[in-house]
Design goal:
By secondary structure, the protein is of the alpha+beta class. It has 14 helices and 12 strands.
Length: 453
């Protein structure tokens, strides 16, 4: 069974069914990898001595699989979003109805696409795709012609963007075909063709790059198709004479996208050649002017208003941290200060066969296992609490000022450290380069709240 196919429940069943070494061998990974996976998914492992007790005929207690705090919190947020996602405001309903009217005039069946009490129905993927492109191409005209009764301004565009945001997950992803310029016949193509699946995350990334181009008045920015997180959506098709290696990048300007490729022959003596592959107008393939902004702007100082709803959880976390630290110091002090031989000698001289000192040591060893599990649960709570307070999720793009410089970060980890004097929020992630592409450098952003809870 490949590791990526294992659910949290399956992993829990495996580690309590057989020793970790056997589970690791079965999955083709190391026992250290299994331990890390258990820690990341908050799956409790059997304590030390568990399998010896099983072999001796005992049936030790098997704990239940506790709720995954991070997962529970994520599902709760998704449930709230789902309840409000399909509900359109009166202005948004006008944009939607104008799109349906255009589709109806074109003879396209829209019987199942009508709103129900102001909510979006379960739309056909092709209908959703066409509505998105109609909003992009006709949204401003609908306002001008009176189909949408309002005056065009920034808030109206933001309202239309919300409709786009709600429709995008329903739409069928388009497959963009970038062909070699100057030769459109595949059967005798002198250059490659590149097919890119225009998924929702890729559209959001393209929209953020377009905003970067417009804000900084750049000609275009590039995103490597071979190294970026959307590489799986690109497919390269070569003509019959292409015995080449291909490295390609997606180029994004204010109005267009295209692919530039560096093609290399198998033979090292043949020089590499740069090829431009196709150009597509952004407005014709996606609602680029109405794409929702996915960037989160954060201030270096966290306000008391952001902390107030989570005051009790922060206080509870602080108390648990203190208790954990106190017990950890005691347990590890017991482990370091008294050698096993000394304990064994003391048991033999004073207690004979009773061995209370060594029994105490075994109890401390068991406690250490529990402390490790406790630490993983505390870290999960720190992450979930930090995400709730900051309004940040894994994968979000965070924009902030860090040490006097502008920083744009793709978030991969969030945590916090609390004390009596306040809290520090830690965001880790990959930094964007100045040209707007996602780089390889990892960066840490620290945000502070000073004061009691």
């Amino acid at each position: 069974m490949p590791r990526r196919d294992i659910s949290r429940e399956e992993l829990f069943a495996l580690v309590w069914e057989k020793p970790t070494q056997e589970v690791a061998k079965e999955l083709g990974v190391s026992d250290v990898a299994i331990a890390k996976l258990c820690a990341r998914l908050q799956v409790p492992k059997p304590p030390r001595g568990y399998w010896a007790r099983v072999r001796s005929g005992q049936t030790p207690r098997r704990p239940p699989l506790a709720a995954f705090r991070e997962e529970v919190d994520r599902r709760r947020r998704e449930t709230v979003r789902a309840k409000s996602a399909g509900l359109l405001s009166k202005l948004q309903q006008q944009f939607y109805q104008a799109a349906l009217s255009d589709l109806k005039r074109q003879g396209i069946g829209i019987d199942q696409a009508e709103l129900r009490a102001g909510r979006l129905p379960d739309l056909d993927a092709d209908i959703a795709s066409q509505i998105l492109l109609l909003i992009q191409g006709r949204g401003h005209d609908w306002v001008k012609d009176g189909a949408v009764e309002t005056r065009w301004n920034h808030s109206v565009q933001a309202s239309a963007s919300k409709v786009v945001e709600k429709l995008m997950p329903m739409a069928r992803p388009q497959l963009l075909m970038f062909e070699s310029e100057g030769n459109r016949n595949w059967y005798r193509a002198s250059g490659p063709a590149v097919l890119v699946r225009l998924t929702v995350p890729l559209q959001e990334r393209i929209a953020s790059l377009v905003r970067l181009v417009r804000e900084h008045e750049l000609r275009h920015v590039v995103m490597p198709l071979m190294a970026c997180d959307h590489a799986w959506s690109a497919h390269h098709v070569h003509g019959p004479d292409t015995y080449l290696l291909l490295e390609s990048t997606l180029c994004v300007s204010r109005t267009e996208i295209w692919v530039e490729a560096m093609r290399k022959a198998w033979r090292e003596e043949d020089p590499p050649e740069r090829v431009t592959i196709g150009r597509l107008n952004l407005q014709s393939i996606m609602p680029i002017d109405y794409m929702p902004v996915r960037e989160v702007s954060l201030s270096p100082a966290i306000s008391r208003a952001a902390i107030r709803p989570y005051r009790e959880r922060l206080q509870a976390l602080l108390e648990l941290d203190r208790v954990h630290e106190m017990i950890s110091h005691s347990a590890y002090g017991m482990e370091r200060n008294v050698p096993d031989q000394t304990l064994a000698l003391a048991d033999r001289i004073w207690f004979g066969q009773g061995n209370p000192f060594r029994a105490a040591r075994k109890a401390w060893e068991h406690l250490q296992d529990e402390l490790e599990r406790w630490e993983s649960e505390l870290e999960a709570e720190r992450s979930a609490l930090a995400q709730s307070i900051l309004g940040v999720e894994f994968g979000d793009i965070v924009v902030a000022e860090n040490r006097g410089r502008f920083l744009r970060l793709s978030v991969s980890d969030v945590s916090l450290h609390a004390s009596d004097k306040g809290a520090t929020f830690i965001l880790n992630g990959t930094r964007f380069r100045k040209d707007g592409t996602l780089g390889k450098q990892h960066e840490t952003l620290a945000l502070h709240f000073e004061g009691d809870f």
